[in-house]
Amino acid sequence: MNKWIKLLKITSIMLAALLSLSACGREERQRGIDGCIYEAELLSGTEKWGKNFKSGGNWLYYIGNDSALYRIPLDGDGKPEGEGTFFQKEVLDYTVDEEGCVYCYRAGINWPDSGNVELAEGTLSRYREDGSEVYCMALDGRKAVYGSLYSVPGFLACGSEGQVFLLCGDSVLVVDGSGKMISEADISAHRPDTGYFGVEKLLEGKDGRACYLAEDNGKRFLYEFADDTYRPQAISLKGLEGKDTFLGSFYGSPYGVLYSGSDGIMYRFHAQDGIWQAVMRWNDSNLPGDAQELVWVSEDRLVAVFLYFEGDEYYFLDRKYVKDLPEKEELVLACADHYSTDLEDAVMRFNRENAGVHITLQIYEGEEGLVRLDAELASSNPPDMLDLTRLDMAKYMEKQVLENLEPYLSESSVLKREDFLEGVLDGYTVGGRLAGIPDEFLCSVLLGRTAEVGTGAGWTVEDVVALTEAYPGRKLNGNSFYYNLDNFFWDYILEQFIDRDGGTCDFDSEEFRDFVKWLSAHCGSGTGYYDREEVDEPLIINEGIATFLDYLRFVTRAEGEEMTMTGFPSADGKLLYRALSLNAVGIVSKSRYREEAWQFIEFFLSRKWEDSWDAPFYMPCRRDLLEGILEDAVTPEYWMTDGEIQLDQNGNPEEKWKWLFSYQNEDGEVVKCIYDCADQEEIDGFLDMLGHTDFSADDRMRSEVTAIIAEEMGSYFSGDKALEEVTKVIQNRVSTLVQE
Length: 740
Fold this sequence. Notes:
By secondary structure, the chain is an alpha+beta fold.
């Protein structure tokens, strides 16, 4: 019955999506929310600005590197201009009310042996906009312990009628406009309980509402002090259902608490309705959705602060109606669950450089999101591009949803097939048609001790079984049965027990039963996909080779015993590694803007990295970039003094280390590993690894088959069913899947 109810719900969602799309035009998916966007202007002259920004009256305030409070005047449009001027000295935190009064919190800072931060005594002061003091309230005898001090600590939040809230350990003090404490709210039951290392801060809301944000065990909780009792009450998350708020950021605002999450949309909490409503899409402003600070200078204007290694950026955002802006060709790039920062950056740069085209990144979250995506792809108004990461590429190619990019590539004056590793294009070709071209990848490899697995690479399942028999009592690793099945043995499963062409499978067999009994006996005891237990001396280690340095660290220069890359076990023992490819973009066949979509793909895949911080985090799919990395890896560098190479005591050039890698060992000690440049043998080994790497996109049948096996095997592990009964059910379910 539950299955039919779920099917009915999904069908209803698809029907509603189709009806909605048939009733409206493309304008429903243009830029903006409620017909508006926030145009972003990069502010100049910000080199000396600091952190912890707030706005009040005619000023934008911030704390400088000297811990003093400064402010910048706002022009008639609310834009900050000029350098900051001194306002108050040595401020730990502050806030500003709607009348322009400034509240400053100062406290003594101690660093106990526990590693936490202790704030002792201190004062709370209120100042008028002209700098004159209204009151100074002593916090005698008060101490509070926190995990750390953040650049925007959130100790203060303004209330109404001159009230201010001060976070002080297990309490939030409520102080009136004259400096008298009128309440002390107990928040001890809501504080992080894991050594005070979770984030906790106060945020300002609309109509003088003060909120308390607590983070604990990977979850965030938001409370407000909304009535005369000042007791913390949980804030509704209606409107944010299904979103992992731990992945986003909350900001205080006199117009309502704000939340910006991984979907690239900023939401505002409407306290009267108890609901979060979308305010803006960062992509519409050609900005990333990870602003470290967000300050509303008026209801229609705000300042966003982005902190970068190469220099901080400050943007002034001004709300505009889309209808009043120049028209553009609006393209939609659809992504499942989230998109990478590299793809986001490419879309932002493309939009900024193309006056007549704008690409909107659209997130489709969870199972319902994928149902909605499929409905839109079947409509007359589909997205224009798909980020193929986490999508069933083969399904969309078989249904002719995606364009064949091979003709585009052959006619391109910017890209050619030879620009990319051959295996990359082969992995994204289905039925002779190229679905997309990934931008980066990492290699997943299995490692074993050379003394135990030998020096040869490539092995069968029989070889792995023999290894476990040679070392009884030791497990392959501490991962769960499900994880190992899905990650290490799915090639063997698909090759040995499934005939795709014939539409048959063979899971109700002694061979399969022997395999799952053996595998379950040599895995961790966890039942969840990511469950893991610590085991002594695992026989197999799985590593991701994301960079050439990873290859050195894990393979040729691994600490301790010599390691061998064995490859993944298969039915015939062929040498096989796997690639996780990223950022492949496909063009939707029914799009009216296929040429513009290809222009973006060209732009994205042909970009260069001129600075070290712009280099790809993973290995590039382009040959020239990869060759440049390997050429640099074998080129020695030398210590220089006044532009000349330093010589050692023997008069030889003093070579500089090529890479420095640090990690923390089990004893908590920081270990530094220094690597000099690579030799040709290491380069050849790395290239051989790539030559035996499968770049195929995620096979949806694989994940569905392994999920079925893991689900049904649960009743065998619990002792509820015999293995023979379980394999019959697996046989029936997979047989239906293969035939479909």
